[in-house]
Amino acid sequence: MKKIIITTMLMLALVFSINNGLAVVAEANSETITYQSENGPVEVPANPERIIVLSSFAGNVLALDGNLVGVDPWAKKNPLYNLDGVEAVTSDNLEKIIELKPDLIIGLSSTSNINRLKMIAPTITYTYGRLGYLEQHLEIGKLLNKEEEARTWINDFRKKARSVGEKIREKIGEDATVTVIENYNKMLYVFGDNWARGTEILYQEMKLKMPKRVKELALKPGYSAISFEVLPEVAGDYIIFSKNSGADTSFQETETYRNIPAVQNDRVFEVNAEKFYFNDPITLEFQLDFFKEKFLNN
After folding, report:
1. Long-range contacts for 159-163 (Cβ within 8 Å, ≥24 apart)?
2. pLDDT in tens, 244-268
3. Edge-to-edge strands of the sheet including 187-191?
4. pTM for this prediction
5. Where does the secretion signal sit in this chain (predicted)?
6. Within 10 A of 214 (CB to CB), how many other CB atoms are there?
7. How does DSSP classify residue 90?
8. Are 181 and 153 within 8 A, CB to CB?
9. Are 87 and 60 in contact (CB under 8 A)?
10. Residues facing residue 71 across a β-bridge
11. Which segments in the chain show pLDDT lower than 50?
């Protein structure tokens, strides 16, 4: 009985704190717009001033000059983002989120505690992969009341990516294949055409070809875990290796790996995985420059 009473008191204290935090934010920013989310219309600040992103969209907000006060731990350690003074938080740390006094929270449909987050600030969620990578940025633009800025960037980026893609195909040949892999813990992963790591640029915009075995394994689900021994089956003429230096890289010392044609021909392009995880404008611009340099200037 005592345990029930204590739990109830804690919940009431949390609700009280949430309501106080919400009142402060509402007073600071009273102008709103109606955003058509995938779950229906939501009233959000017309010019949000304290944004928390609990998903993979921190770079989208940064690219649109949104003011972030909290991001998920994966985004926080991305060396491409300028997140000095921005807290790393998760959806389970409600007290910390309340302390940050957000006026807008962005997450995924799978984010935990969604109903509680909605009590703190307007909360918008997206289903990962439901929208194309550029459509997703446009939606973030709409949410932040910066649709035109987002649309301008999208049009410019697509032109640049396709132009670079034409030059790459001219150099490596129309039939050359490219494989994107990443090591994590003791596993190796291969990616389809819509799971970040530069795949959207390579396959969707540049129209580079994916090896048949990669299509079979990863195109539909987005990615697939493979054993190191299977790597020769999925290896294309070129390999993009999104590399976690702290994870297992011992496979690179094996004869199996060394005998892969892409390895023998010096066509494995390694990059820090932390810079390649996402597909927001900041990451995409970095990926495009990386591909331009590696394919055209090597």
Report:
1. 160/288, 161/201, 161/205, 161/206, 161/288, 162/205, 162/206
2. 988 999 999 999 999 999 999 999 9
3. 223-226, 187-191, 178-184, 238-243, 268-272
4. 0.89
5. 1-23
6. 26
7. -
8. no
9. no
10. 53, 88
11. 1-12, 15, 22-28
Residue from 287, 179, 289 nearest 241 by CA: 179
Cβ atoms 186, 248 nearer than 8 A = yes
- Residue showing tokens 């009273």: 30
Other C-beta atoms lying within 10 Å of the C-beta of residue 213: 19
Residue 233 makes CB contacts below 8 A (sequence gap 6+) with 213
**Contact (CB, 8 A) for 191 and 221:** no
CA distance 282 to 64: 10
- Torsions phi, psi for 107 (to 5 deg): -145, -170
* Cα atoms in the Cβ-side hemisphere of radius 13 Å centred on 24: 13
Which residues are CB-neighbours of 116 under 8 A, at least 6 positions away? 18, 94
DSSP structure class, residue 86: P
User: Domains in the chain, ordered, with CATH?
Assistant: 17-145 (3.40.50.1980), 170-297 (3.40.50.1980)
117-to-101, 111, 112, 125, 145 alpha-carbon distances in Å:
12, 10, 9, 11, 21
**Any idea which residue has 């055409």 for tokens?**
193
